Amino acid sequence: MTQPADRSLLSTCDFNADGTLSGGHFSFQVDFFDDPGIGFNDPTFGAAARAVVCQALRDMSFLIEASPDCNGLPPVLRLKIDASMNEYPTSALDPIVLGRANPLYYNFSNPSGQMPGWVHNSVWRTVNGGEDPTNYPFVNGEPVYHGMMRFNFHPNISWNFDPQNVLSAPQFDLYSVVLHEICHLLGFASLVTDNGTSDIDPLGGYTPSNSGLYTNYDRLLVRNESSYSPLLSPVNNCYDITFQGNINVLTDPCNVILLRDVNTGLYLPVVAPNGWIDNVEMSHLDDIGGPFACNSTHYLMNRSVIQNALGQSFRRPTDAEINLLCSMGYKSSGVYGDGSLSFHSVVSGNNPPACGEFVAGVDDDGANCHDHFVFCELPGTISISTILANDIGVLPNIDANCIEPVVGNITFTAAPAI
After folding, report:
1. Residue 59: which of 274, 330, 336 has the closest Cα?
2. For labelling, which of 72, 178, 302, 328 has a CA lying 20 to 30 Å from the CA of 99?
3. Helix 122-129 × helix 174-186 angle, to 10°
4. What sign does the CA torsion over 33, 183, 100, 341 have?
């Protein structure tokens, strides 16, 4: 999913001359792929719709802190806004799909097959690690996108494009829908399928065969029981992640599966489909307005993106959802928005929680900001302290049993400190 070398033919968030949108803690390159006259390039509403997307991204970049890259600069997220949908249900029983988001995953495989483990998507890795995880070791040429979003501009769907208008009913509110999809890109995304296997199903399978690749969100899934046992865990205390227990919990109704917020100790309900639909259901919180309505709390990340308890469109994630983002490894600044709109925290005084710490492994490409590791003869030796030097918040305690090479003939040896 590469970014075109020439972006001049695409609509972008043109806050800077190079098409980069400067944010609070990180920046963006946002490319809209609609044809002329359609969707985000519609002559009537296209510019207003693009402005909503760019504003929501910028607002979230003030909430979510980021690690700088190796040159001390804010990291840049590359996001593709795919060609707009033009869909409308033929039955009143079918939902109206307003938007979709796809976080992208990169570099979790080797030539012999897919590696199991906990996977962080490219948005998470860029924000928390500071470095672009798609640059090496396998990509040459155009940059690769870190995530994708898509929205529905069918003529039967009426949109509110004014972020200041929080009482937009009966229109659908674009700002809250964009915010919802941004949270999917950040990590509200499950890879659990109806039989407990991973949705990333490589041709050669996994080794061991019952393991799989699952998200950091999946790591927080627990059963609603006295022990709150995890839905997934490594059988070898390393990376061989497997589904634990009876798969019937995936289709049981109401409050059987919860998300554990490690910051507050609270447990939030996951959508209970009472009959499997797809893993998209597992990527949402259940609330009073959801299709199964097992709970009485309002969440931005519910399945239907309804209004909050005051009848208003969402203008930021709830405190509980921000704490969940911190549980997924993000760091919240306690500030929402750039201060240009009335609902931004510096204007309204409605401050979100500050939480989380940076802990991120960063791909290794040599010292001094990508000088590469060069060996004049083999075998060569790299100290583990060198490997850890560019990681963020990682303690130098290594379990040699869990170190695995992705590619190549590499031997890991534990040596006493000198």
Report:
1. 336
2. 328
3. 80
4. negative
Distance CA 79, CA 143 (A): 11
Answer positive or negative: Cα dihedral of 361, 367, 369, 374. negative
Is the residue at 365 inside a domain? no
286-295, 327-336, 371-380: which is most confident: 327-336
- Cis, peptide link before residue 379, omega less than 30° from 0: yes
**In angstroms, what is the C-alpha Rg of the chain?**
22
Structure tokens at 243: 């589904």
**Host domain of residue 235:** 11-355
Query: For residue 234, is it within any domain?
Result: yes
Asked whether the beta carbons of 16 and 56 are under 8 A apart, the reply is: no
Write out the DSSP string of 272-301. Answer: --SS---TTGGGSB--TTSSS---S---TT
**Secondary structure (3-state) at 81:** strand
**pLDDT of 399 above 80:** no
Q: Could you give the CA distance from residue 268 to residue 275 in angstroms, rounded to a whole number?
A: 20
Q: Among 189, 181, 185, 194, which residue's Cα sits nearest to residue 214?
A: 189
Half-sphere exposure of 98 (CA within 13 A, CB side): 19
Q: At 171, which amino acid appears?
A: Q
Question: By C-alpha distance, which of 144, 183, 177, 128 is closest to 329?
Answer: 128
Q: How far apart are CA 283 and CA 281, in angstroms?
A: 5
User: In the structure encoding, which two tokens stand for residue 377, read together?
Assistant: 């003869």
Residue 59 has pLDDT above 90, yes or no: yes
Handedness of CA 122, 4, 39, 76 (dihedral sign): positive
pLDDT at 405: 65
Instruction: Please state the domain count of the chain.
Output: 1
Q: Where do the H-state alpha helices sit in 292-381?
A: 319-327, 345-348, 367-370
The answer, yes or no, to whether residue 253 has pLDDT greater than 70, is no
Contact of 129 with 360, CB cutoff 8 Å: yes
Q: Please, what is the end-to-end C-alpha distance for the chain in angstroms?
A: 46
For residue 370, is it within any domain? no
242 beta partners: 233
Domain membership flag for residue 225: yes
Q: Which helix (H) or strand (E) holds 128?
A: helix 122-129
The pTM of the full predicted model, rounded to 2 decimals, is 0.92
